[in-house]
Amino acid sequence: MSTATQTKQALIEAIATVAQDENLAKGTPLTDLNLDSAIATQLETKIIALESENPNPYPLKTSIELLDGAWELLYSTAREIRVLNSLPLGFQLGRVYQVIDVATKGFYNQAFCKHATNALAGYVTVNATFSKAPTPDDGIPDRKINVDFNQRSIFITKVLGLPFVLKNPVSTVSARNPVGRIPSLTLTYLDADFRIGRGGDQSIFVLSKTNTIQP
Question: Is 3-210 a domain of CATH 2.40.128?
Fold first, then answer.
């Protein structure tokens, strides 16, 4: 087993252990919200260790095809994910995915949620496009993308505990991009089944490749 594989496995196991200790529902991504600072630091140390062993340091040039497909979010420090992990009115976050189509330079984020009583369930999608960003201040090319969010849609899949079959969203609105800045993501680790990215504010996203999408 290579050093990178061992480092990756150690990170995956650490995230799973903390998620279990935090009593998160199976599949719900871990965030640093309400996480002990020492534990959050330990996780970031493992993330930095894996980033240092990135097999594809210039992914947009040499291995962009690896981005294609569905990715499940395991851990994040991003504000938008932290908010989802503290939903009001008894709603609980489920699994969160990002599905990328490299050919069209588009992707959508999909977050499942349900009420604690299991009476109502559904998911939210946010569609976006991406483009290669200019070489950033760190001087490392071919790993940063700019993002343009297009629309946000809400779908209902269960009402009063019963399946709710409706292909069209119950609500669709324009997705607002941040004022005064371009959303961006730097790919700091990428292999065939694992990815780490950092937002413009250095927020962290850790994802694993998946063949199935489920709540």
Answer: yes
Short-list 55, 52, 43, CA closest to 12:
43
Q: Where are the domains of the chain?
A: 3-210
Question: Residue 149 forms beta bridges with which residues?
Answer: 128
pTM of the predicted model, to two decimals? 0.94
Q: Residue 207: how many CB atoms within 10 A of its CB? A: 21
119 Cβ contact partners less than 8 Å away, ≥ 6 residues apart: 158, 159, 160, 161
Q: Which residues, 6+ apart, have CB-to-CB distance to 212 below 8 Å? A: 70
Written as one string, the DSSP assignment of 133-178 is PPP-TT---S-EEEEEEEEEEEEEEEETTEE---SS-SEEEEPPPP
Between CA 8 and CA 49 the distance in angstroms is 9
Residue 199 CA, distance from chain mean position: 11
Cα(6)–Cα(192) distance, rounded to whole angstroms?
Answer: 15
Task: Indicate if the alpha-carbon torsion angle 144, 146, 149, 150 is positive or negative.
Answer: negative
Convert the pLDDT of each residue in 30-56 to its tens digit: 999 989 999 999 999 999 999 999 999
Q: Is residue 135 a contact partner of residue 141, using CB atoms and an 8 Å limit?
A: yes
